[in-house]
Amino acid sequence: MQKNIIAFADEFGNNSFEFETQGTHFIIATVICKKENLDKLQIDIDVIRKKHGFQTGEMKSSGVGPNHLRRIRVLEDIAKLDITIYAVIVDKTKLNGKGFSIKKSFYKYLNNLLYKELFRTFPKLDLYVDEHGGNDFMREFKKYIEKNHEMNLFSGSEFNIQNSKQSYFIQLADFVAGTLGYIFDESKKSPSSTKFQELLAPKIASLDFFPNDYSFKELLDTNVDEDFDPKIASVCHQRIKTFLETEKGTNQQKIDQINLLKLLLLFQRANVKNRYISTREIFSHLNPSRHEVLKQEYFRSKIIGNLRDQGILIASGRNGYKIPSSSKDLDNFINLGKRIVLPMLNRITEAREAIKLATSNELDILDKEAFFELKKLIDK
Predict the structure, then answer these.
(1) What are residue 209's DSSP bridge partners?
(2) Is 211 in contact with 269 (CB distance < 8 Å)?
(3) Which residues partner with 317 through β-bridges?
């Protein structure tokens, strides 16, 4: 991909999970073109604006709304432009974890997802968004890029976000995003949706749908983390998939375990680097579906601990939990356990020896059936 690629992005939808009234999908659409074609593209967009009655106003999808015949006429001319379209389409009805209904959590997830997908698909790209008006997500995405853009991860790439208010190109992205909403969102679909899709199809480079089936192949194909180890990631992924396929959620503990694993899979797929998810963030997703809020001890022993007892590999560290995908993840997990286990074993040993000394070896505090395994471990 050459460096003369430029993209303009806009959004459709919101973070609401009131699907009947607020829609089922959130969509980020990007209109992509070569920089040397920008002047001609602006002229061509202006012709479309004037031809279809937008005049001095913005060419926005909301301005056309459910007037499907007018939208078709506009799309017929957009299809003649020298552009390509890339979009991330999120089906909110499939996002496990009610914490996504919280705007901060929802945008944080999408920030990670869009950042990863844009760089993976277009490693050298200039991106422009409209951070004004009602574009809440784009404002948050701008902040995210400024804080998190990793030049060492995407070497040679340039990623600039600038305000493009009143830009014809942003207006075009808005119209495309809105049209994709009329194609995929259940509250916007109509008999004309198929026609909209046919008109846009020749210009579409890729549509990435989330969430999907979370196959390991898909995870492997989308990986951009240099620490990723396919052997480690594969065995961890397969054990989780087997658990989810066989467990039915017959009680609250199993339901909590299933919801946690689905959440960890979601974040593993979305993040550039499979970051740890804090306990607080996990609780914000799991608690809304429970009658009682989660307790820390229950979460550690009955959810995390019990899953590990069943052979599910979950890495943990000071920053939270994740599905292991590298030897570094396993090292962190073992080091954390070592810091907890070894001091405790040493304290038990010291206490045992002190009591044996004081009682002339008559009392061994580990000489009970309940402590048999522990005694055997320390004796070794």
Answers:
(1) 89
(2) yes
(3) 320
Closest CA to 204 of 179, 182, 229, 239: 179
Instruction: Report pLDDT digits (tens) over 101-126.
Output: 778 888 888 888 888 887 777 767 77
3-state secondary structure the chain: CCCCEEEEEEEECCCCCCHHHHCCEEEEEEEEEEHHHHHHHHHHHHHHHHHCCCCCCCCCHHHHCCCHHHHHHHHHHHCCCCCEEEEEEEEHHHCCCHHHHCHHHHHHHHHHHHHHHHHHHCCCCEEEECCCCCCHHHHHHHHHHHHHCCCCCCCCCCCCCCECCCCHHHHHHHHHHHHHHHHHCCCCCCCCHHHHHHHHHHHEEEEEEECCCCCHHHHHHCCCCCCCCHHHHHHHHHHHHHHHHHCCCCCHHHHHHHHHHHHHHHHHHHCCCCCCECHHHHHHHHHHHCCCCCCHHHHHHHHHHHHHHCCCCCEEECCEEECCCCHHHHHHHHHHHHHHHHHHHHHHHHHHHHHHHHCCCCCCCCCCHHHHHHHHHHHC
CA 270 to chain centre: 3
Distance CA 356, CA 350 (A): 10
Nearest by Cα to 9 from 27, 24, 22, 23: 27
Is the predicted pLDDT of residue 195 greater than 80, yes or no?
A: yes
Question: What backbone torsions phi and psi does residue 273 show, to the nearest 5 degrees?
Answer: -115, 130
pLDDT tens, position by position, 326-377: 998 888 888 877 888 888 888 999 999 999 889 988 898 988 888 888 888 8
